[in-house]
Amino acid sequence: MKYDFNQIVRREGTNSVKYDMREKVFGQGNVIPLWVADMDFSTPDFIRKAVIKRAKHHVYGYSFRGEGWYSSIIKWFKEQHNWEIEKDQIVFSPGIVPAINLCVQAFTKEGEGVIVQPPVYYPFFSAVEHNNRKLVLNPLKLENGRLCFDFDDLERKIKTQQPKMLLLCSPHNPGGSVWTREELQSLADICIQNKVLIISDEIHCDLVLYGNKHIPMATLSKAVANHTVACVAPSKTFNLAGMATSSVIIPNEELRERFEESIERVHVGMGNVFGNVASEAAYKHGAAWLKQLLKYIESNIDHTIAFLEHNTPVIKAIRPEATYMVWLDCRKLDMPDDELWKFMIHEAGVGLNRGDMFGKGGEGFLRMNVACPRITLDVALSNIRKAIRKET
Ligand SMILES: Cc1ncc(COP(=O)(O)O)c(C=O)c1O
Question: What's the CATH number of domain 17-44+288-391, 3.90.1150.10, 3.40.50.970, 3.40.50.300, 3.40.605.10?
Answer without folding.
Answer: 3.90.1150.10
